[in-house]
Every structure is written in structure tokens, then in C-alpha cells.
Amino acid sequence: MLAFNTHKNHFDFLFLGMGAANSLVLIKLFEAGLLSGKTLAYIDPKPHLEGTYSNDKTFCFWATESELEFMGIGHLVSASWCKLEVSGNKKRISPYQYYHIRSEDLFRFTGEVIERLNVVRISDSVKSMDTSSYPHTVECSGGETLWAKEVFDSRPPEFEKLKAHQTHLNQSFYGWVVETEGDIFEQEVFTMMDFNVPQLNSTQFMYVLPFNGNTALIELTRFGVEVLKKEDANPILEDYIKGKFGAVKIIHQEQGVIPMSTATLPQSYLGRHVLRTGGRAGRIKPSTGYAFKEMVFDAARIAQNGSKNCFWGFHRKKGHQEGRFAFYDRLLLKVLEKYPSDGAKIFTQLFDRIEAPSILQFLEEKTRFNQEIPILMSLPKRPFIKAAIVDIKSRLLEGSKRNIAVFMSILIGVLYFFGQEIAAQGLLVVGLILVGIPHGALDHVLESRGKKPDFSFSFFAKYLGLMALMLGIWQLFAPLGLLLFLLFSAWHFGESDFKEIGLKASMSSFLWGIGLLAAILFTHLEELNIFLPHFKLNAFYIPNAFFGLNPIELGLMLLGLIIWVFSYANPVYAGLRKVLYILVIGCFLPLLVAFGLYFIGHHSVNGWGHLRKGLAYTNTDLWKTAWPFSLGAFALIGGFLWMSDSGVTAYWAQFFVFLSCVSFPHVWEMRKFYNAI
Ligand SMILES: Cc1cc2nc3c(=O)[nH]c(=O)nc-3n(C[C@H](O)[C@H](O)[C@H](O)COP(=O)(O)OP(=O)(O)OC[C@H]3O[C@@H](n4cnc5c(N)ncnc54)[C@H](O)[C@@H]3O)c2cc1C
Questions:
Q1: How many domains does the chain have?
Q2: What would the mean pLDDT of 193-221 be, rounded to a whole number?
Q3: Which domain covers residue 547, as residue numbers?
Q4: pLDDT at residue 308, rounded to an integer
Q5: Nearest by Cα to 460 from 673, 669, 608
Q6: Which of 375, 400, 425 is the C-terminal boundary of a domain?
Q7: Inside any domain, residue 492
Q8: Distance (Å, rounded) from C-alpha 361 to C-alpha 368?
Q9: What does DSSP assign to residue 339?
């Protein structure tokens, strides 16, 4: 095998797509001196950086003088304005200026950097990327395979299916750069929105950028579900231009579509060496479609992190999907979707009542809450209140689905507190019947990814063989059986918890699994000690209690606290926090209940979700497919209960031996399934 970088398809840096976002990243990394001596390539099917630089976009943004200086792209600015106009209302925007960059100028500059650094262009599309090995592998549609140490992925965003509170609109536009006979444009004012055009059951307005006295870009823009068509836009543009500016000569056409979407963008962590950028990283503000300035700041941040040897960096700004600004975005888009003809009134009223710089600051998500109150109060109340009710209802439902394990743990904790143990245990049994057992009764459809149930002799022989192997180990040397059971359970729990937060199984997920099992077991040392002799092991020494908790319990809680704090610094692990809540509640409950909370409420519910997605099944499909084996498991458990006459703890110890035997082949099958999806 050739050493890395001596092969022509091995690169230190690989850019997937070289549009605006990755051009900016390339420029910033180059300026920070991080690319010298590196091998670089980009994959993009579009030839927009090859001698002729396409001018298919105009990138505009507002910024203060110091922001523009920080951005370091002042040399690319080709026009700027100090006033905006909304439906005839002209306003100063100081301390901001509105800046314009032609995509041709950005790409020419990128082209110069590409030439200086000898960046290889691969004229193709990315088909797939595999991050399970390092250097990562990228496969192109043309069949070529590339390897890279650092990947910057700016392919177009792939939104998830819309939930009730989410909206996906298109900001579509079509316009002309025109020349007039005389100087008729007011050079210091750009028209952000002029609603004096037919609305056609959407929100439509004119956007006018005068480049000088007799040249301007005049564009019809639509916020709506339907994309604006050229044939619909032409007559409106003609009427508007004729009425306002008279005869013109068209010198250039521009059209485009920007997604205005509050749909979820998959943001799973793909490792420290893959960075999403631009639209794919959620940089497009859903309610405005603006992204350029944020992409410049993002590129600068990436270069700053790169100087500290970690491009990924913990301190990357999130996209527009969380927090109160995401809430405002969702409301506005919902209102525009449900009541498109209200759009004109909403924006006109907003710019009538509020100073333009405050609105621009708000749209950049840089206002404080007290500054936002007058802005929110200036909007028509009814549609926004209706949208807020839809949003809150849908998110509560979503949240309760996502946090079902925590809710269940609190409920069971409360039932125990009030002495309602039977009710609490009953709830756990219901959970076990609904998902606990069935989630492990689908192994026969995993291989074919749900297409064909496997009832073959070889499947059963393999399955029963693994169960018998486990039973044999228990019979031969019980401590080894217990150790194996704990280790493969730790692997399996870690694998499924990491899958839930978008990470693959790894040594970290295994350590997480060991940690959570240790937390459950060592916070119930007294009960554990009752079981251990049944596995031919000595009881643990229990250190003196300290504030009611022994030092082991205290140590574990401290560790939990550290992980909890760490997950704030590294948002990738935030999804694991709810496991810590469950474990803490479990500390105050009996061992089996604590385990049940995690196993049923978290592990099985998540596993059920992974199966539903990976097999493309509905819940009913899953239950229907699982029933023969679920029924078998219930019969075995029933028989076990009936036959067991050797006292309570011995019975539970035997039950765990039985559980380890049936779960061994399940963990094996699930490992293959998780690797495949
Ligand atoms: C016409 C238009 C005007 C805009 N104007 C503004 C504006 O004025 N101000 C503002 O803030 N924002 C604006 N935006 C929004 C945003 O800034 C742009 O969409 C910006 O181009 C986003 O950058 P990007 O790199 O994420 O996407 P792009 O610039 O679209 O780059 C993505 C690149 O990936 C390539 N690609 C696609 N599929 C593959 C694949 N499978 N494999 C490899 N490469 C692939 C594409 O060819 C493309 O070159 C505008 C958007 C449009 C469409």
C-alpha cells in the first residue's frame, strides 16, 4: 500500500462542492497559512471556477464598518447603500451599510487561490462518504474513490420530513439587470421590499439594487410554496419597470431559489474531521434566506479553530434550529404558509413602526429580549398567536415523545415515593410487553433489512447455537458468564445510545456502556451483594456512608456531573444527558426498577425507533413481525416463573442467566444491523 499523500487520490483537505461556503473556507484557511504544503482537492460538477466565473448570484448582506473589516472581503464589494426602502418608506440603516458582492468576483478570487495552491478539481458529484475509517473515503458518482484527512461538506442541504410545527417555503426570484437612458436611480437607496405588485396567493415583492444612476438589478421575489416561474414573473416585471422607470435595456438575467425552511437538518456528528458548511450546516436563515455574512464568519471561525489544530472545534455556532430566534422563524414561516396574503401587511407594518437598524439587528439574531418586545408587538397579533399555539402544541408532543424515558422515570419515582410500588412495577411490565421484548424479537428480519423474514434452519441453528454457547459458559464458570454478559450488554447499550445521538459504535460508546452499567450496579451495592453469591462471586465491600451515600456512589455521581457539564461544552453529547437523569432517579429505586427504567424507557424505545427507521416499518409492522418471537419470549418467561421455586433472589439470578442467553444472539444481530444502516 502506498503511503498517504503519495497516491494521487489521497488528500489532506477535500472540499465537497466549491460554491460560496467552501470558497470562503478555502480563502480563510489560505489566509491563515493553514494550507501550505498540503494536498488539496474539490469535487464539484459545476465548472464555475474554470476561467469563466459564473455571475449567477448576487451576495448581499448588511454589516457595520468594523464587521466588514473583520470579514476581510471588502476588496470584493462592488456596491453599497446606506438607506433601505420598504413599499415607499425610506430609512437610514446606520451603523450598517448594505453591501453587494458579485458571485463572479468571489469565484475569481477563489480561482486565484486554487491556482496558487494547485488544488485538484474533480469534475464529478459526491455519491457517498464513509467516515468509519480514517482517512475518510469519498466515492464519486463516476466511480472514483478519494481519501481525505479533513473534509468540508457543502453539498446542498437534505432536510428531514416536516413535522407539524415546521414549514418549508421557497424564496424564488427572477429579475433583470437593466440600463435606463438617463440617471434615474437613487444610488444611496436600495429597495428591500416593494409590495406594490400582485400577490397571487403568496408573498411577493420587488427587490431593487441600483448600481449607479442608470443601472440596477430589479427582481421579483416570492416567499411561498410554489416556485416563481419565468412566465409568471415577466409580465409583473415589465409592468413594474414600465410604470416606475420607463423604457429600459435588459443586460443580464438572474434567477434562483433559496430554501426557507425550519425543517430539521441532520446534524449528526461525523467525527472531528468532517465539517458541514453553508446551507448544509444550516447557515441559511429560514425567515430571510440570507446566509452570506454568517458563512464568512463561520469560515473565519473554522480557520481560527484550525490554527488550534481542530477544525471542528467545540465552539462552532449552531444553525438556526434552536432557541428563541428559531421560534420566531417558525412562527413567521407558518404564518406565511397559512396566510400568504398577510405577508405584505406584516413586513410593511414592521418597517413602518420600527427603526430599520433594529430590524436588521433582530434579523441577525443579535438583539436582546427586551429589544425584541417592541418588534414582536408591531406585528399583527392573530396569525402569530395561532401559529404559536400550533408550534407549542406540536413541540410539546414531540418533546414528550423524545423524553418519554425521563417522564416515565419521574412518574415511577413518584409512585414509589407514595408507596404505589405495584402500580410502578405494572407500568414497567406494560413497557416490557409493548417495546422491551418486541424490540428484541425482530432479529429474523434484520439481515434482509425488513424485506424477507428469515425462518431458515441455518438462522435458528446459529441463534440457538449462540444461546447454547452462552449457557455453556455460565455452567462452566459463572463469573466468566457474568463478565461476558456485562461486557456485551455494555457494548450494545453504548452502541444504541450513540446511534441515537448520531454517532457510530466505538471505544467511546463501549466505555459509555460500561459507565452506565457501573452506575446502575454500584449505586445498588447492597442489592448487588445479594445476587453475587449466586454467580459464585464474593460480595463487595461497602464503604462507610457519607451524607447517606457511600464514596462509590458519590464518585459515580461526580462522574455523571462531569459528563453532564462536558455535554454542554460539546453539544454532540447533549443527547446523553437524559440517560444521566434516568440514572439519578434510579439511584433512589430498587436495582431492578433502576435497570428497567433505562432498559425499557431509553434503550428499548430508542432501539424500536432505529428499527422502524432502518427497516422502513410502521409501529404496527414491527409489532406484527415481532409477535411470534415476542409470544415465544413471554411463554418462556411464564414457564420460567412457574418452574422457579428456589426463592426470590435465586430466581432473579437464574432469570439473568436466561436473559443473557437470549440477548447474546440479539446483540450480535443488532451489531450487524447498526453497521449496515
Ligand atoms: C440566486 C441566489 C442568490 C442569493 N443571494 C444571497 C444574498 O444576496 N445574500 C445572502 O446572504 N445569501 C444569498 N443567497 C443564499 C446563500 O448565500 C447561497 O445559497 C450560497 O450560495 C450558499 O452557499 P453554499 O456553499 O452552501 O451553496 P452553493 O453556493 O450552492 O454551493 C454548493 C456547491 O455544491 C455543488 N454540489 C451540488 N451537489 C453536489 C454533489 N453531489 N457533489 C459535489 N458537489 C455538489 C454545487 O455545484 C455548488 O457549487 C442566495 C442564494 C441564491 C440561490
A1: 4
A2: 95
A3: 480-676
A4: 80
A5: 669
A6: 400
A7: yes
A8: 10
A9: -
Handedness of CA 103, 108, 111, 117 (dihedral sign): negative
Q: Would you say how long the chain is, in residues?
A: 677
Angle between helices 577-587 and 404-417 (to 10 degrees): 10
Question: How far lies 458's CA from each of 293, 454, 675, in Å?
Answer: 60, 9, 22
| 424 located within any domain | no
Nearest CA to ligand 1 atom 44: 17
Substitution site in 49, 54, 59 for ligand 1 pocket (most atoms within 8 Å of beta carbon)? 59
pLDDT tens column, 575-603: 898 899 999 999 999 999 999 999 999 99
Do residues 506 and 561 share a domain? yes
Using the CB atoms, write b or e for 592-603: b if 16+ within 10 Å.
Answer: bbbbbbbbbbbb
Domain annotation covers residue 649:
yes
Closest to 274 measured CA to CA, from 138, 82, 401:
138
Regarding whether 485 and 351 lie in a shared domain, the answer is no
Residues 297, 359 within the same domain: no
Q: Does ligand 1 lie within 6 Å of residue 256's CB atom?
A: yes
pLDDT classification of 313: cutoffs 50, 70, 90: low
Q: How far does residue 504's CA lie from ligand 1's centre (Å)?
A: 30
Q: Is 15 in the pocket of ligand 1 (CB under 6 A)?
A: no
Is the residue at 71 inside a domain? no
Together in a domain, 568 and 654: yes
Q: What digits encode the pLDDT tens for the residues 175-193?
A: 999 999 889 999 999 999 9
| Closest C-alpha to 256, from 78, 91, 57, 120 | 57
- Using the 3D structure, point to which of 400, 418, 452 is the last residue of a domain: 400
pLDDT tens track for 318-366:
677 778 999 999 999 999 999 998 999 999 999 999 999 999 999 999 9
Residue partners of 40: CB distance under 8 A and separation at least 6: 11, 12, 13, 14, 15, 117, 118, 119, 120
For the CA of 157, the closest atom of ligand 1 is 26
Q: For residues 177 and 542, what is the distance between their CA atoms, to the nearest angstrom?
A: 80
